Amino acid sequence: MAAYANMTGLDDASRSAFHDLITRHRKIVLKVASIYARESADRADLAQDIVTQCWRSFADYDATRSFSTWMYRIALNVAISFARSSQHRQRHAVAFDDSLHDVASPDPADDERVRMLYACIDALDPLNRALLILYLDERSQREIAEILGITETNVATKIGRLKERLRNDMTEA
Q1: Which of 123, 141, 164, 173 is the most buried (most CB within 10 A)?
Q2: Which of 3-12, 38-47, 95-104, 106-115 has the highest mean pLDDT?
């Protein structure tokens, strides 16, 4: 995520402010990247794309508003675009020889229930995946609505349906 340091377009004070804000809120980038990309290289690429888009949009950031809300909105938009393009790539990809995969790399989803949860999350459409991330991050319904561009009532309804769906999916699996 440090590649933005070489980008130009803003003065030194803005670059410094951006660096501080990105450093303070880097978990947002990592969280979104880990939900929308399973492979390590894809997560790194997605995280880089998110930070790059934040940099490109930083001149338009309104400092009177919450940086994390602004960052989430950008991160989720970039991640949703990434997920859509990944689905296209996967449909047209040729399988690689499994013996070439690094089977020794640790998988954080070793626990069966965690694997089940990830499978349920992977099955969600991009909007519900974004909603789940924000809900699990304990964002208010108002902030979720602002980030996703939907009404608070819609957020409440979707959260209720999402909880029910996950509950059903986890008990069926």
Answers
A1: 141
A2: 38-47
For the chain, the first-to-last Cα distance in angstroms comes to 36
Q: What is the pLDDT of residues 40-57, one digit of tens each?
A: 999 999 999 999 999 999
- In order of 47, 53, 69, 82, the CA distances from 149 in angstroms are 22, 18, 11, 19
Stated pTM of the model: 0.69
How far apart are the C-alpha atoms of 65 and 44, rounded to whole Å? Answer: 28
Q: Which candidate, 152, 170, 99, 87, places its Cα nearest to that of 126?
A: 87
